[in-house]
Cell division protein FtsL (Nocardiopsis changdeensis), 148 residues
Amino acid sequence: MTTTRTDTRRSGKRKAPAPRRAAARPAAPPAERAPARGSAAAARARAPRIPFVLLILCLLGGALVSLLLLRGVIAQEAFAISSLQTQNRELSYEEQSLRGTVAHLETSERIAEEAEGMGMEQGDAPRFLDPGSGEVTGDAATDGGSTG
């Protein structure tokens, strides 16, 4: 193997281009290189590509349809979630209102007013019975109440 060095400096003289070598493989006849369009050979050369292209198109179409369906389902679920959140908010407001009503109804002042409206009277001071001695004690007992 021989190595040739070339001078990379520019000189005023240009070298003549090297003659081209002949191709290593023999040239094929024109009929074998490129089949004529519309011939049976061209149809056989393209036939394996058609099922692959159809498969890719079907897969892309299926993916598009599934994405559209998925998006529709997600939108429907989002609407349902929004509706449920609105319903939950309304029920929360109603619960707060009912808790306020119950708190008002449980006050002792309101119960006393309702009892007086029904004709009930407030009782005297309470009296207590001592089971050991049998005496009645309390404010009413000292005001002339009897024991026994």
